[in-house]
């Protein structure tokens, strides 16, 4: 399990870098659009479409990053008031439901991506499959993280926070 956690940390670091790069790319593309429209009075057609596609990837890859860093929104005040045993049952059931839901979403995401392979985007004219692929890819990373948490400690999963080498 130690090797798997080390691999997961590496993947998490890569996802943090990629989501940061996507954020910078979105800002640059939108800045280009503003400059072309306001200064040169000649707006390009493609920056808004590209920014939307990049934002889609940012959302779905960012979900895994947010989970891993403990930044996902959770309303757990009621669960925290429960006895320890009931809390463990709720956490286990929640993890299992999340795993099943994400498996379904990955499957449907792959299905949708394959169906959209022959249709092209309006302005940039590339396959919609490149956009729709964000769904199964992002959900797969999230599924892997939640599943690893659950396997490591089924009764207290759902935190998403990576521990460092010392176990903290």
UniProtKB/TrEMBL annotation:
Keyword ATP-binding in annotation: no
GO terms assigned for molecular function: transmembrane transporter activity
Keywords: Cell inner membrane, Cell membrane, Membrane, Transmembrane, Transmembrane helix, Transport
Coiled-coil ranges per UniProt: none
Entry annotated with the keyword Magnesium: no
Localization in the cell: Cell inner membrane
GO cellular component: plasma membrane
One annotated GO biological process: C4-dicarboxylate transport
Similarity comment text for this entry: Belongs to the TRAP transporter small permease family.
Function: Part of the tripartite ATP-independent periplasmic (TRAP) transport system.
Subunit structure: The complex comprises the extracytoplasmic solute receptor protein and the two transmembrane proteins.
Name this polypeptide is given: TRAP transporter small permease protein
Organism the protein comes from: Silicimonas algicola
């Amino acid at each position: 399990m130690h090797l798997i956690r080390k691999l997961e940390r590496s993947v998490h670091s890569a996802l943090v870098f990629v989501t940061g790069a996507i954020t910078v790319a979105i800002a640059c593309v939108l800045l280009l659009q503003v400059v072309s429209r306001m200064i040169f009075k000649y707006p390009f057609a493609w920056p808004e479409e590209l920014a939307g596609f990049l934002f889609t990837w940012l959302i779905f890859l960012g979900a895994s990053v947010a989970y891993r860093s403990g930044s996902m929104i959770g309303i757990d005040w009621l669960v925290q008031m429960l006895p320890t045993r009931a809390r463990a049952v709720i956490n286990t059931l929640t993890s299992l439901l999340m795993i099943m839901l994400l498996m379904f979403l990955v499957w449907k995401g792959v299905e949708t991506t394959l169906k959209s392979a022959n249709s092209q985007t309006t302005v940039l004219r590339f396959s919609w499959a490149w956009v729709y692929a964000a769904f199964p890819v992002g959900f797969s990373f999230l599924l892997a993280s939640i599943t690893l948490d659950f396997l490591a400690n089924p009764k207290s999963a759902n935190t998403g926070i990576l521990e460092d080498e010392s176990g903290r």
